[in-house]
Write a structure and sequence with these properties.
Elements lengths: L2 H18 L1 E4 L1 H17 L16 E6 L2 E6 L3 E7 L4 E4 L8 H8 L4 E4 L5 H4 L10 E3 L11 H15 L3 H9 L15 E2 L5 E3 L4 E6 L8 E6 L3 E5 L6 E2 L9 H15 L6 E4 L5 E3 L1 H15 L5 E5 L2 E8 L2 E5 L4
Parallel strand pairs: 5-6, 6-7, 7-8, 12-14, 13-18
Antiparallel strand pairs: 1-2, 2-3, 3-4, 4-5, 9-10, 10-11, 11-12, 14-15, 16-17, 17-18
Helix pairs in contact: 1-2, 5-6, 7-8
The chain binds zinc ion (2 copies).
One zinc ion binds next to loops.
Length: 329
């Protein structure tokens, strides 16, 4: 996959969201900057290193439904904050670059509970800012690592060029990595969630659905009455099933069952709160992944082996869905 292809994909999601959603603050200028940088980067992939002043950047915040905010960590990864009458719930924490806790506390003074969509460090790496909070996750992801500053640096320099291109932006992200290495938080602090659990936060409920595929412990959180499914990396613009090379199909079958289950629920939600690439997506993306994974299983679509950034595996596309599978890494 070429860099320019991936940049177009990023802009498609970001631009669509910016047009349809109210930008609360912070987001519009950074988005415009991202688009400018992306356009410039597309013209020249060998941009010279940025040597000017490094700007201070913050998370972008977009209200995707009443009392439900996407908090984008410099377009690298999303978290979502639901503000109930009694408490607030933060779905994922980002990878811990910048101070997401402060952003949450600017939006609400309600006590915060954290619910992780899965254990990957880009979603759990900000946990060090929430060690005084209740944290929930599916126990199947317990063995994962919440990362450290070395991971944060790697993430900004490997994913930044795709998701928030421009050397100035990368430098700005690196400048927000905590100066002192934060405590590495073990996922053992989490309380378990399981299929069918319902949490009432006052005015809104959250229902848990187990959605294995991207990881064994991936879950989706249905937020009602907002009609939003927080789908994390289970369903987003580009999904990676980073296990089982050697042409095994078990994982694709599992992911297909997950898509089918989420599509069967689709009369209860309109919008997906996705882990990456744009703030939210229309629910048809679930159908596209269901059809794509079925087409791979049926032999109607065959992926092509590619290496791109931190990914290496077979990549296949159908409509808006892009799936990486049989991955070496
Ligand atoms: Zn992930
Ligand atoms: Zn992720």
């Amino acid at each position: 996959m070429s860099n320019s292809m991936s940049r177009r994909t990023f802009l498609k999601g970001a631009a669509a969201s910016a047009l349809t959603l109210a930008t609360m603050n912070l987001g519009a200028s950074a988005l415009a900057e991202a688009e400018k940088s992306s356009a410039a980067a597309t013209q020249s992939d060998a941009a010279p290193a940025y040597t000017g002043e490094v700007p201070y950047i913050e998370h972008s915040v977009v209200e995707i439904a009443p009392n439900l905010y996407c908090i984008s960590e410099f377009y690298l990864v999303n978290a979502f904050l639901l503000v109930g009458e009694e408490k607030a719930v933060l779905f994922d924490t980002g990878c811990g670059i910048g101070t997401i806790r402060e952003i949450c506390e600017r939006i609400t003074d309600k006590p915060i509970t954290v619910m992780l969509t899965h254990g990957h460090f880009d979603h759990s790496g900000g946990l060090y800012q929430f060690t005084d909070c209740e944290v929930y996750m599916h126990p199947a992801d317990l063995g994962m690592n919440t990362g450290n500053n070395q991971f944060r640096q790697f993430y900004a320099t490997s994913r930044g060029p795709v998701r928030f291109p421009g050397e100035k932006n990368i430098q700005a992200m690196l400048a927000r990595i905590p100066a002192e290495e934060p405590e590495v938080v073990s996922l053992d602090i989490t309380k378990p969630v399981k299929e069918g659990d319902v949490f009432d936060v006052g005015g809104s409920t959250i229902t848990v659905f187990e959605t294995p595929g991207h990881t064994e412990g991936s879950v989706a959180y249905l937020v009602e009455p907002q009609r939003v499914l927080i789908s994390g990396d289970t369903i987003n613009n580009s999904i990676i099933l980073a296990r089982q090379p050697n042409n095994e199909t078990t994982l694709i079958e599992e992911f297909n069952r997950t898509c089918r289950k989420l599509w069967d629920l689709s009369d209860r939600y309109d919008t997906l709160g996705v882990g990456h690439d744009g703030f939210s997506w229309e629910k048809h993306l679930v159908l596209d992944y269901m059809d794509l994974s079925q087409a791979i299983l049926d032999g109607d679509v065959t992926g092509q082996y590619l290496e791109f950034g931190i990914r290496a595996g077979d990549m296949a596309r159908l409509r808006t869905a892009e799936l990486w599978y049989q991955c070496d890494k």
